């Protein structure tokens, strides 16, 4: 069996064809310039039409941002793209492709599903996934199944509060963890500490860190301290066997994983000290594979 898989983020749409053994047969990346749901859907159609010509396809899997109702294929809300929230995406696409089954899921859920299928959490049943990229997302898996909560909102760990008097967040709260523990937080906090707009990406931040810049080192220490608190709180709520750390930041984990583990083990309650901390082993492929796996499960 083969699925067309789409990983749609804030700045890119990646399309791929994936078989049911988890092989990525082909892929194609489109840079997204406008943060507009109408543009995203046009890119989805472009990707789907391209692959339907060349492959015999059984299902389509899409991972997108925002809270998503996977039963209905509806985007419930999103802080990133206009013309996205409220969209009946499955209904919109279904009529175009001869009734092929279409799965529509949150992008973090897809990344964690991918790791569960083919990656670093394959052997764990109860997992908290922390996905750190531009923002901070997550999901909870219990006995192999996602725990969605009301309105599919469970696992929005980016909006747990780290500093009650901290920076305002677009969600309406103050001091949300995402503002302190994300790729964006790293470079913004670095600029704040320097007092100038000197960098504007997580990549540039890690360039500073690798060059032994003491401000970057201090910013990373604060980031890890925030991440540690999130991990302790979430461990006490969910008691996972493993905490998965994924997303773009996980690619740099060789630089800081030992320090994070040291902070976590020093401060977490005794009964939680043996929680496994694991890192994405699939990198950018995790969401593509997960979106495909969700699609195969419809067949
Ligand atoms: Zn928030």
What order do the helices and strands come in, and which of them pair?
Layout: E1 2-8, E2 12-19, E3 24-31, H1 37-54, E4 59-64, E5 67-69, E6 74-77, H2 89-94, E7 102-106, H3 107-118, E8 127-132, E9 136-142, E10 145-146, H4 183-194, H5 202-210, H6 214-238, E11 242-246, H7 257-267, E12 276-279, H8 285-296
Parallel strand pairs: 1-4, 4-7, 8-11, 11-12
Antiparallel strand pairs: 1-2, 2-3, 5-6, 8-9, 9-10
The protein binds zinc ion.
Zinc ion is lined by residues 159, 169, 171, 173, 176.
Give a nutshell description of this structure:
The protein is of the alpha/beta class and 299 residues long. The chain contains eight helices and twelve strands.
Small ligands present: zinc ion
CATH architecture descriptor text of the largest domain: 2-Layer Sandwich
Q: What is the end-to-end distance?
A: 10 Å
| Shape call | globular
The structural domain count equals: 2
Rg from alpha-carbon coordinates: 19 Å
- Mean of residue pLDDT values: 95
SSE-based structural type: alpha/beta
How many DSSP E strands?
12
Strand order of the largest sheet: 3-2-1-4-7
CATH class of the largest domain: Alpha Beta
Structural account:
- The structure is a single chain.
- The protein has 299 residues and is α/β, with parallel strands linked by helices.
- The chain has two domains: 2-111 and 284-296, ATPase, nucleotide binding domain (Nucleotidyltransferase, domain 5), CATH 3.30.420; 124-279, ATPase, nucleotide binding domain (Nucleotidyltransferase, domain 5).
- The chain is built from eight helices and twelve strands.
- It has helices spanning 37-54, 89-94, 107-118, 183-194, 202-210, 214-238, 257-267, 285-296; strands at 2-8, 12-19, 24-31, 59-64, 67-69, 74-77, 102-106, 127-132, 136-142, 145-146, 242-246, 276-279.
- A five-stranded mixed β-sheet has the order 3-2-1-4-7, sandwiched between helices. The protein has a five-stranded mixed β-sheet with strand order 10-9-8-11-12, with helices on both faces.
- β9 and β10 form a beta hairpin.
- The longest helix has 25 residues, at 214-238.
- The model has no long low-confidence stretch (mean pLDDT 95).
- Residues 159, 169, 171, 173, 176 line the site of zinc ion.
- Residues 159, 169, 171, 173, 176 line the site of zinc ion (ZN).
